Amino acid sequence: MAIWRYKTDDGEYHPEAPYGQDGRWRWMLKDTDFGFGLYGKSVSHNTLAFAAGDTYEGYANEEWAVFLFKTLLKNEEFRNEFINRFADQLNTSFVPSRVVPIIDDVASILQPEMQEHTDRWPFIKLTSTNPMETTWSQEVTWIRNYTNSRPTYVRQHILSKFRNNGVTGTAYVSLNTDSTQGHIKINSIDIVPDTPAVTNPDSWNGLYFKGVPVTVKAIPKEGYVFDHWEGIPGGLQSSDTVTFTFGRCEH
């Protein structure tokens, strides 16, 4: 990931400045080589500790490269937003039941080209009797297995990294509604059919982190109005937007 900002004369943010010159931080995803354990990284590799500079592995996470992220994590608002966004993505985009079919689809597209590919670059074989050689199908299977196992490890990485910040465990959130009348938004996720891995917007479950405030919002459809929550503790049942820190909650 590349991160940069235009340095204004006074170092402040100037919203009236020309595009790209207002002093805000910008980012661009440009390199995902560490995805799915490339370069020998195991499924349990603590990439969070690597990215935050807690461990030094000799390359790619020198002090200058991790300074910004490591410093931002000291800010409570950023830290909670990061943890919640992490959980949101694990509950949607990276659910194995969603990712594995994508892997299979891509593999089926590449399959007809693999004979020519392996003939030209034979470090990966289509078939082999040598146990020291890796075949293409074995690599695809390895990626599938990585997909199924990785979420458990990265949740543990969050707990290990932020335990001293009050993150003490995980808890399920259950959201039940009538999607003909509206939907619920939790943090950055709209619980609607178009959201990745949301198969039933009327009854949805997600795994979040204890000690980190979570925000839910009721969004009625046209012609309906929000009335109240059920299962929210305290006096917040009548507010359409509620933020709470929880153990196990069902709403």
TrEMBL record:
Highest taxon, organism lineage:
Bacteria
Q: Which residues form the Bacterial repeat domain?
A: 206-245
Q: Which InterPro entries match?
A: Bacterial_rp_domain, Spore_coat_CotH_CotH2/3/7
Q: What is this protein called?
A: Membrane protein
Q: Name its species.
A: Acetivibrio straminisolvens JCM 21531
